[in-house]
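Researcher: Re-running this chain for the archive, since the previous output was lost when a drive failed. Same request as before.
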Amino acid sequence: MPLIKIPRHYLVSQDQDLIIVDVPESILLNWQKDYEKITKAKGILKHKKAAMLAHLDTLRQEWEK
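Model: Regenerated structure tokens:
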């Protein structure tokens, strides 16, 4: 779950369980775009994980020689 910082002037109310904020839609759209970029990057890294680990193993073997 990503953490986000919200300026206090957007705070509407809060209690022990909830924080309610009123943020402009433009900010929400930016957050959505950023989240999509992060999700895409995670997907790319997940698909390349095996190749990256194999490359690291190769490098380790070369260093140990």
